[in-house]
Write a structure and sequence with these properties.
158 residues, single chain, four-stranded antiparallel sheet, 2 domains, alpha+beta, disordered N terminus, OB fold (Dihydrolipoamide Acetyltransferase, E2P), 4 helices
Length: 158
């Protein structure tokens, strides 16, 4: 079972890489696996990111189910904006386990300020705030997997 989990993660990482590369079609075939990824350039990447959830429901069902539940309480507060994940990967609140978090609830952030890191394909991507405001809530636990377009933070732009 552990071997399948690793292969599923590799597939998810590959799909994330393909979505960032701009390729429209990739075919990979080994003795154990045949993978064909096709992307319509006119559609959003979120459609492609859903594929790993269907292939490995035991691995991806819990994080995928937790994301809408975490975002649901935020919906009534229309003044708050969601800062969403630009990619699939692992969410980190700080640069290293010993470092303090980039931002905490109550902190004021400026547009372009690093607010977290998402690791994808062994690359650590600094994620910058898309707008200025005050952090109201952190919606994802540290070192948790995140999906493309998953809400990470609630920010009050006022």
């Amino acid at each position: 079972m552990k071997e399948m989990t690793m292969k599923t993660k590799e597939i998810r990482d590959l799909i994330d890489f393909i979505s960032q590369s701009g390729l429209n079609e990739v075919n990979i075939e080994t003795e154990e696996l045949k993978l064909s990824v096709k992307r319509n350039p006119d559609t959003r990447v979120t459609e492609m990111a859903a594929a790993p959830v269907m292939r490995a429901p035991e691995m991806a069902a819990a994080p995928a189910a937790a994301a809408p539940a975490a975002a649901a309480p935020a919906a009534p507060q229309s003044s708050h904006k969601e800062m969403k994940s630009p990619m699939i990967g692992t969410f980190y609140r700080s640069a290293s386990p010993e470092s303090p978090s980039f931002v905490n609830v109550g902190d004021t952030v400026e547009k372009g300020q690093t607010i977290c890191i998402i690791e994808a394909m062994k690359l650590f991507n600094e994620i910058e705030a898309e707008f200025s405001g005050t952090v109201v809530k952190v919606l994802v636990d540290n070192a948790s997997p995140v999906e493309f377009d998953q809400p990470l933070f609630l920010i009050d732009p006022a």
